[in-house]
């Protein structure tokens, strides 16, 4: 049987035991959280952040490419419909699209405002 110090106080190893117990409890808690997170990932509730960001970037590039090509496709249709010079219409549309894309890129780089 362990010896108790005089006066009924705790033995000298009690704080160490308590610290180990708290560390083990914290470890179990973290392991449980990790298992729950893995389960949520498998169920599709959680996605990998890097993969989501890569998908977002790829979608943004596809949208940008679409809009950069659009003036060349739309200009001849508009020029024919309104009797305008196709090259002039393409130049105007290209400038407008590039300006809009530039403004969107600038807005994306600015920090989001909190509401």
Task: Summarize the main sheet.
Answer: none
Say how many strands there are.
0
Q: Which whole number gives the mean pLDDT?
A: 90
Terminal-residue CA separation = 64 Å
Beta-strand percentage?
under 5%
Helical amount among residues, as a percent range? Answer: over 70%
Q: Can you tell me the number of structural domains?
A: 2
Low-confidence stretches: none
The number of helical runs is: 3
* SSE sequence, one letter per element: HHH
Radius of gyration: 32 Å
SSE-based structural type: mainly alpha
Question: What gross morphology would you assign?
Answer: rod-shaped
Write the topology of this structure.
Blueprint: H1 14-42, H2 49-82, H3 86-109
Helix pairs in contact: 2-3
What can you see in these coordinates?
The model has no long low-confidence stretch (mean pLDDT 90). 76% of the residues lie in helices and 0% in strands. α2 packs antiparallel against α3 (86-109). It is rod-shaped, with a radius of gyration of 32 Å. The protein has helices spanning 14-42, 49-82, 86-109.
